[in-house]
Specification:
3 helices; elongated
């Protein structure tokens, strides 16, 4: 009875960069969410404090715009990067020029 060696799961660099960029965008969204007054009030109430913040519409609008546009922008940037990588790694085509017999 022979035991086959167990292979470790491997993560490619492209997948690692993709995951890092997704988590970076998510953390930026959480940062903007923490600046919105309504969310600060909810966190304060959850923590047992009273909610006494004034409405900050600018932070709320920035958070909403970030939330709605970040998936589209992330897809646009990643799609562009993949297209550039495919363009740079495409196989080169050599053309043969045949001359008519003299």
């Amino acid at each position: 009875m022979s035991t086959s060696p167990k292979t470790r799961p491997q993560i490619s660099i492209a997948l690692m960069i993709l995951l890092m960029s997704i988590f970076a965008v998510m953390s930026a969204g959480m940062f903007y969410a923490s600046r919105v007054g309504a969310i600060q009030d909810e966190i304060a109430i959850f923590g047992g404090n009273s909610a006494t913040s004034e409405p900050n519409r600018a932070a709320h609008l920035i958070f909403l715009m970030f939330t709605y546009t970040s998936p589209l922008l992330l897809a646009l940037v990643l799609g562009t990067i993949v297209s550039i990588m495919r363009f740079r790694n495409r196989p080169t085509v050599t053309r043969r020029v045949t001359l008519p017999p003299a």
